Amino acid sequence: MHRTERSGKTFLLYFTFTALCALFFFLGNNYEPFALALLFAALSAHASPTGCCACFAATSAVALSGNVFLACAGEAVILFIGFTVYGKLGKESRESARKAAPIPFFALFAALALFAVFAPFSAYSLPPVFSFLNDALVQKIAAAALIYLLSAVFSVAVKAILFRLLKCRLRADEIIFSLLLFVLSGIGMCRAFTPDVYLGAAFFILLFYSAAVKDASSVVAAFVLALPAALTGVPLAKFFVFGVAVAAFAPLGRLPSVFALILCYFFFGIYENVFETTTSYLVPWVLCVLLPSLAFLILPPSAIARAENKLVFYREKHLSRIAINRNRAAIGEQLFEISAVFREIESSFTALSSEDSKDGAKEYMCKCVSDGVCGRCPGFSECNKETNARAQIEKLVEIGCIKGRVSLIDIPEKLAAACRDQSGLLFAVNKQLAEYRKYIVEADNAAGGRELLSKQAQAISEILKGLALEQSTPFASQRDKEKAVATTLQKAGIVCSETMLCKTFSGDDSPVLSLVTYGKADVKKIAAVASEVLKSPMMISERITLSDDKFCCILRKKPVYDAAFGVASMKKHGETASGDTHSVIRIDERKFMVALSDGMGSGEYAKKVSETAISLLESFYRAKMPSDLVLSTVNKLLSFSKEETFACVDVAVVDLDSGKADIVKIGSPMGFILSENTLKILEGDSLPLGILEAMRPTAATYCLKDNDILLFVSDGVTSAFSSSGELLDALKKIPCYNPQEIADNLLAEVLRRENGTAQDDITVVAVRLYKGAATESAVS
Q1: Angstrom distance (rounded) from CA 302 to CA 313
Q2: What CA–CA distance (Å, rounded) separates 698 from 631?
Q3: CA dihedral 682, 685, 690, 695 (to 10 degrees)
Q4: Which CATH architecture best describes the domain 479-557?
């Protein structure tokens, strides 16, 4: 279906070109090749040289002269050769295209020279003041000069009509040159046929345009349509009346607008006594308004609807600052409210301390012991007077809470001397202490859970607050730069109807450029133009489809560095799965995270542990939570397991703008930073994740430079070497250019040392940082 539509459009373009060429031959009395200017313009707009030249030569047959046909055929051949040579040279390189640019103009000059020398020509009779121009050759040279000038004018007009009309606002020169092309086409129609024929076509265009737009621009359209007829003697004032009448009734429907046009037309006929003329004059006069009106009335509604949608879509603004800023403000306000909710949740968890409940538990134990043992003792009254039994029991319970269990030596001296049932007392206290220990474990777990949720709520609150600040900041207008981008894109041959420039709110004020383009625009050229105008390397971040041939491109600042990754791994011999898990994710446009987790042991359970740790790290870092909170949360979540669940983890978050790498090591073997001539060892002394609730990871920040390689390995690699020195020697022998080659070679060396059998899970992750290629200029 798309191929059929494309073929239909191509046929329509060639048909229109052929018709216009035929009309242009009637602009002069000698069939001067004014259509040659149109041919040059079409070829400049990258039309097919073969088809266009053939159509031009064929339309010269309207002159009914063999000499005119031969001259035009020769002119077509010269332009065909010129543009063919230019097209082949232009494909080789930009420099060759620049050097070949004059070839089409030389070909046009040669074609016009052929016209001036060989084309038949009858000199025009000029007023006496121009008697020096009465020579036929002089007039042909003047006509050739005029055609050469029109070629440049029509080139601008044809490109504007084909590539920019109804897509973006035309420049003043494009509008003027397009109007000139239309006026000359109308004059040619008037001369080729009669003014009535042109008026019929103009009436149809006026009615169709008015039905599509339904506004006062129909009056402007009427003025433009009146120009060719006015130059042939038709009064210009009539068309203003026609335009006003049609514009006034167009919103009511097609029939009222047609009725208004015919009524005004016949009113002028009565005023000019047209109905008193001969039938030969009256019939064409009546038909020139009735036929286009009838054709307009039977036109399918879908045709007008398509035109209306095209015009409305052209006028619509897709990047309205007001709407965007209002939406951003509303979203920011809502995010502030949600942030406050999470802040209140964090405050509530912090306020729920367990210290008061522990003191209450001690009082409860003392009461139970006193009531259960002392209350049934017949000597309690005498004992209580001598020793203050309740205070002595409180001391005993306090000692038990500290030791976990009490014995005879823990009973206070006064209480030991007076108490008649010491064994019963110890039994009751130890029984209460056992219940107390269970309670304390549950209370501590609950406190740990509250602390975890409190920190998460605090982090979410801070993230939402940051997003609220970002969304609440309105886009500032930078129209000068936006206009410069649009103008430069136009010079580069890219149609752009809208541009909007704003800044990111990540702290670096990086520019973000949004623009609307048409067709299969070269994204590399767009990025090059944006980089040149904004004085900052830009890249296409998103490309959103608005319609079949209309797209919104979003460009962001290109990071200074790019990264290449290499991974090599092998599971332990005899195991079904590897306990090592690695991850490389993009946190945002300018940062990425690389992580390696080695789960406890080998096999499926170790794999599950390491995958869990990596999955948690990925999720938290993507949410841009603070690194210390991420690690403590993952550690606590792993420690909640009833089984032994721990993992050795390497994490690095790398900034592609500065090369800064925040590296965290938790119970993992040594890592490395490989430079061209140096090798830096990354070591850590913390316990793995999940062993203790309190965790002290080894964290450091390093600044990576161009072509530096960050290397993480699991303990399956380090255990294959008898010492760190051997591992360092092996790394020095591996070329540090390709990260995948480094990973593969190190894995091969480990297997060689273990006789081809992996004694443990082996994983090598290598990341190479390098500067991205500079964006080349796209503006010729």
Answers
A1: 16
A2: 11
A3: -110
A4: 2-Layer Sandwich (3.30)
